[in-house]
Amino acid sequence: MERQQLPNSTLILIFGILSIIGCCCYGILGIIFGIIALVMAKRATEIYNAQPELYTGYQNVKTGKILAIIGLILSAISLISTIVMFIMYGGVDGIYEMQNEILREIEQNQ
């Protein structure tokens, strides 16, 4: 019997990579892609474990799962730091004011 590609194995790897890249978007996209990749990886692992001799591409699933976990951690840190910044500086206006103060100080020191 010919071995076939494990369903969604490449997509899981892509979503794992996107979860790491998505941590740069305030963490929201990274969390979304990470959760999707983990859910898909769980299903693919169940399929593979039922009949491992029928499928190839399990390495992509394992790698995608690891990348998704890393992406989730980085995204959670990014999201938490963004929330803390908003709380500490009073929202977007407070952050802009802080940036303007820093720029004024840099200009004065030059």
TrEMBL record:
Keywords: Membrane, Transmembrane, Transmembrane helix
Superkingdom: Bacteria
This protein's record includes keyword Transmembrane: yes
Transmembrane domains' residue ranges: 12-39, 66-89
Pfam families: MpPF26 (PF07666)
Keyword Cell wall biogenesis/degradation assigned: no
NCBIfam families named among the record's database cross-references: CCC_membrane
Name by which UniProt lists this protein: M penetrans paralogue family 26
